[in-house]
C-alpha cells in the first residue's frame, strides 16, 4: 500500500544517501529519504511525497537522537542547506562518506575493491578559499549577503558562514554597509533592476592575498574610488578589486567583461609548491590544504619513475601534473578551457626552465585529444584523469586503453561516475586496486575519491 502524504511514521535512520539525506525503511520495506537526520536517529517522520519504490519525508519529531548527533552551531544551517551534515560529529561524517563511496563502487560499479577510510580535511571549518555571496535585502530592507535556500533563489541572510574564513565574511558585511550608506541597490531578479548581483571573493591560503570582485549589471560603479580606499584601509590583504559585468537575465554568476578598480586583477598563491595566479574565472580547488593532501595521494598512486611520460587529462590549470613534474621525464596536459591552458603554461614557466621544458599543454576536448594522441602512437606510462562530475565518455576511456599506460589514477568529485568508469576500465584490461575517499568539503555531502588502477599483464 503506498504511503500517504502527511502520514506519520516512526522510523530508524540506517545510513546516509549520497545527497546527505538519512535513509530509513517503512514497515513495508519502502525506502524513505529524510534530510537533516543522522544514522541511529529514531524519529517521527512526515511523508511529503511517495514515488512508488521510495518516498521523501521530513523530520517531524526526533524521538531518540543518534550518538553521532551534535548541536548545530549555525542558525541558518537548515534553510541555507549548504552544510547538510552540520548536525553530525565529524568522525561520523567521515564514516558516512566512506560508506557512500563504498556503496557506489559496489552497487554501480559492481567492483569488489578496497575503499579506505576517508581522509579528513586539515580544517573542518573556515576552509574555503572562495565564496560567492548573492546580494539581497534582509527583513528590514537593508543590503545583505547570504545564500540561496535549496532549490530556490530566495536568499537566506548569512553574515557569518562558518565554511568561509572570517575575513571574507567581514568583507561581505563591510560591502553591504557601504552599499546601504551610498544608496547602491542590490539586483532584483524579478524586476531586473538594481546594480550588485554577487560578491565574489578569493583568498590565497598560503599567501593571504584577497581578491574582491563585485558582479554588477554595468561596469560603472558609483563612489568606486571611495570604495577602494575604504576596503584597503580596513583589509590590508586585499590585492585586487574588480567589477565583473553581467547584465543578462541568467543563473550564471559571472559575465564576460571584467574591469579592474585596483591591483593586477588576480591574486597569487601556491598549491603543492605550484605557483598559481587566480582571477575570477579561474577553476581552483576550494579547500587548498585538503587538495594538497589529495594531490599527495594521487602522486603516491601514480608511482612515477624518472623516465616516465605523464599524461594529465582534464588538467585545468595544470596543478596536479605540475605538482608531479619533478618525478617524470615529460608532462602532457589537456584541457578544453583556453584560459586554463594559458594559466597552466604560465604556471609551468614560473616553476623554472627545467619544468617548462618538459611540460606541454594544449587546448582540446579530453576525449578527442586522447583519441588523437593514441592514433599518433603516444604511449604514456601514467595517465591522470580528473574529469567533471559526469565522468569520462567512452571515447576517452577507449583512448586510454589504446595508449596502454602502466597505471591510471582517476580523481573524481562524483563517486558514482568514478565507479562506472572504473568498472569499464576493469572490463578492458585494468585492475582497480583501491579507492581513497578524501574530504575536501567538510560539513557538506560532497566527497572526492581517488582510484588506483594497474594494467593487468
UniProtKB/TrEMBL annotation:
SUPFAM superfamilies associated with the record: Nucleic acid-binding proteins, S-adenosyl-L-methionine-dependent methyltransferases
Transmembrane segments: none
Known EC number: 2.1.1.190
Domain of life: Bacteria
Gene Ontology molecular functions: rRNA (uridine-C5-)-methyltransferase activity
Residue span(s) of domain TRAM: 2-61
Keywords: Methyltransferase, S-adenosyl-L-methionine, Transferase
Biological process according to GO: rRNA base methylation
Keyword S-adenosyl-L-methionine: yes
Top-level EC class as recorded in UniProt: transferase
Active-site residues, as the UniProt record annotates them: 413, 413 (nucleophile)
InterPro entries xref list: MeTrfase_TrmA_AS, NA-bd_OB-fold, SAM-dependent_MTases_sf, TRAM_dom, U5_MeTrfase_fam
Residues involved in S-adenosyl-L-methionine binding: 285, 314, 335, 386
Stored Pfam families: TRAM, tRNA_U5-meth_tr
Family of this protein: Belongs to the class I-like SAM-binding methyltransferase superfamily. RNA M5U methyltransferase family.
PANTHER family associated with the record: RNA M5U METHYLTRANSFERASE, TRNA (URACIL(54)-C(5))-METHYLTRANSFERASE
Protein name: 23S rRNA (Uracil(1939)-C(5))-methyltransferase RlmD
Gene behind the chain: rlmD
Amino acid at each position: 500500500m503506498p504511503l500517504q502524504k502527511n502520514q506519520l511514521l516512526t522510523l530508524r535512520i540506517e545510513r546516509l544517501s549520497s545527497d546527505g539525506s538519512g535513509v530509513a525503511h517503512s514497515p513495508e520495506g519502502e525506502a524513505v529519504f529524510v534530510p537533516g537526520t543522522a544514522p541511529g536517529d529514531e524519529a517521527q517522520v512526515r511523508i511529503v511525497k511517495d514515488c512508488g519504490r521510495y518516498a521523501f519525508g521530513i523530520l517531524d519529531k526526533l524521538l531518540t537522537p543518534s550518538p553521532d548527533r551534535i548541536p548545530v552551531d549555525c542558525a541558518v544551517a537548515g534553510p541555507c542547506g549548504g552544510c547538510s551534515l552540520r548536525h553530525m560529529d565529524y568522525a561520523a561524517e567521515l564514516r558516512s562518506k566512506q560508506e557512500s563511496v563504498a556503496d557506489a563502487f559496489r552497487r554501480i560499479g559492481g567492483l569488489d575493491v578496497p575503499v579506505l577510510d576517508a581522509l579528513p580535511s586539515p580544517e573542518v571549518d573556515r576552509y574555503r578559499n572562495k565564496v560567492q555571496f548573492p546580494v539581497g535585502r534582509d527583513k528590514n530592507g537593508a543590503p545583505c549577503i547570504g545564500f540561496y535556500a535549496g532549490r530556490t533563489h530566495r536568499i537566506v541572510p548569512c553574515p557569518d558562514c562558518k565554511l568561509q574564513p572570517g575575513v571574507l565574511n567581514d568583507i561581505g558585511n563591510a560591502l553591504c554597509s557601504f552599499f546601504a550608506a551610498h544608496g547602491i541597490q542590490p539586483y532584483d531578479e524579478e524586476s531586473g533592476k538594481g546594480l550588485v548581483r554577487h560578491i565574489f571573493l578569493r583568498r590565497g591560503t598560503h599567501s593571504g592575498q584577497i581578491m574582491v570582485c563585485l558582479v554588477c549589471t554595468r561596469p560603472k560603479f558609483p563612489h568606486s574610488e571611495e570604495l577602494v580606499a575604504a576596503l584597503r584601509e580596513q583589509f590590508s590583504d586585499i590585492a585586487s578589486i574588480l567589477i565583473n559585468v553581467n547584465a543578462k537575465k541568467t543563473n550564471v554568476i559571472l559575465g564576460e567583461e571584467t574591469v579592474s578598480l585596483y591591483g593586477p586583477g588576480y591574486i597569487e598563491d601556491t598549491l603543492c609548491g605550484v605557483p598559481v595566479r587566480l582571477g575570477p574565472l579561474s577553476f581552483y580547488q576550494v579547500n587548498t590544504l585538503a587538495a594538497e593532501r589529495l594531490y599527495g595521494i594521487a602522486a603516491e598512486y601514480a608511482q612515477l619513475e624518472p623516465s616516465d611520460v605523464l599524461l594529465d587529462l582534464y588538467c585545468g590549470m595544470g596543478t596536479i601534473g605540475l605538482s608531479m613534474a619533478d618525478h617524470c621525464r615529460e608532462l602532457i596536459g589537456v584541457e578544453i578551457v583556453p584560459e586554463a591552458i594559458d594559466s597552466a603554461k604560465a604556471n609551468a614557466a614560473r616553476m623554472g626552465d627545467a619544468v617548462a621544458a618538459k611540460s606541454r599543454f594544449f587546448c582540446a576536448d579530453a576525449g578527442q585529444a586522447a583519441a588523437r594522441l593514441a592514433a599518433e602512437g603516444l604511449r604514456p606510462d601514467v595517465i591522470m584523469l580528473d574529469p567533471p562530475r559526469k565522468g569520462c565518455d567512452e571515447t576517452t576511456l577507449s583512448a586510454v586503453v589504446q595508449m596502454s599506460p602502466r597505471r591510471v589514477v582517476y580523481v573524481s568529485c562524483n563517486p558514482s561516475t568514478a565507479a562506472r568508469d572504473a568498472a569499464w576500465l576493469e572490463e578492458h584490461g585494468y585492475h582497480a586496486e583501491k579507492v581513497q575517499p578524501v574530504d575536501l568539503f567538510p560539513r557538506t555531502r560532497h566527497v572526492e575519491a581517488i582510484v588506483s588502477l594497474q594494467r593487468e599483464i
